[in-house]
C-alpha cells in the first residue's frame, strides 16, 4: 500500500472507498428494514431477516472503521488506476443482476437462468458459444432440480 497524497484523488484512498462502502451498506440496511419478510418470525423464534441485518451491520461497522484507521490515506496501485468506466461497468453488472432476479421471479426460472448463465459464462471467457450455452442449460437445470429436491420451489411454469 502506498500513500495516496498528491498521487490520486480522495475517492481512490481507503477512506474514499470506505465512504462508498458505508453508503452502500446504509442503503442495504434501509432496504432490508422496508421489507416485510425481514420481520417474519420463524419456528425457532428468530426473524427471517436476522442474519442479513447482522451481516449488513457488520459490513457497515468494518467500512466505518476504515474511515478512521491509520491507513485511511493509503491506496493500492490497482485502485489508483481505476477510471469512471470501471465504476460504470460495476453498476451495469449490478443492474443486470437485478434484471435477472426480476425476470426470474416474474417470468420463469428455467427460461431465464440458462440464458443469463450462458451469457455470463461467455462474457467470462467460456468458448465456444455452444459450450457456454450447454453450461447455462445444464447448470440452470441442476440448480432448479436440486432446489426442488430439498423442498424449495423456484418459479416455473414448465414444472
Structure description:
The chain has 159 residues and is mostly helical. The protein folds into 2 domains: 1-82, no CATH class; 84-159, no CATH class. The protein is 64% helix and 3% strand. The chain contains 6 helices and 2 strands, in the order E-H-H-E-H-H-H-H. The model has no long low-confidence stretch (mean pLDDT 91).
Give the SSE layout:
Blueprint: E1 2-3, H1 14-33, H2 50-68, E2 74-75, H3 77-80, H4 84-106, H5 109-123, H6 129-149
Antiparallel strand pairs: 1-2
Write a brief caption for the model.
This protein has 159 residues and is an all-alpha fold.
What are the key terms here?
single chain, 159 residues, mainly alpha, 2 domains, two-stranded antiparallel sheet, 64% helix, flat
- State which percent range the strand residues make up: under 5%
How would you state the average pLDDT, rounded? 91
Tell me the helix content: 55-70%
Treating each run of at least 4 consecutive H or I residues as one helix, how many helices? Answer: 6
Estimate nothing, just give the exact number of structural domains. Answer: 2
Dominant shape? flat
Distance between the termini: 53 Å
Low-confidence stretches: none
The oligomeric status of these chains comes to single chain
Rg estimate, integer Å: 20 Å
Helix/strand order = EHHEHHHH
As laid out across the biggest beta sheet, the strand order is: 1-2
Indicate the structural class. Answer: mainly alpha
Amino acid at each position: 500500500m502506498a500513500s495516496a497524497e498528491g498521487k490520486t484523488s480522495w475517492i481512490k484512498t481507503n477512506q474514499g472507498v470506505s465512504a462508498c462502502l458505508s453508503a452502500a451498506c446504509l442503503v442495504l440496511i434501509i432496504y432490508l428494514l422496508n421489507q416485510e419478510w425481514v420481520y417474519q418470525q420463524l419456528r425457532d423464534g428468530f426473524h427471517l431477516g436476522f442474519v442479513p441485518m447482522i451481516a449488513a451491520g457488520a459490513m457497515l461497522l468494518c467500512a466505518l472503521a476504515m474511515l478512521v484507521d491509520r491507513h485511511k490515506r493509503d491506496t493500492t496501485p490497482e485502485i489508483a488506476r481505476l477510471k469512471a468506466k470501471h465504476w460504470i461497468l460495476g453498476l451495469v453488472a449490478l443492474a443486470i443482476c437485478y434484471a435477472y432476479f426480476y425476470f426470474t421471479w416474474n417470468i420463469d426460472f428455467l427460461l431465464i437462468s440458462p440464458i443469463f448463465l450462458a451469457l455470463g459464462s461467455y462474457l467470462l471467457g467460456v468458448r465456444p458459444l455452444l459450450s457456454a450455452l450447454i453450461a447455462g442449460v445444464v447448470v440452470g437445470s441442476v440448480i432448479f432440480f436440486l432446489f426442488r429436491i430439498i423442498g424449495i420451489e423456484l418459479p416455473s411454469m414448465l414444472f
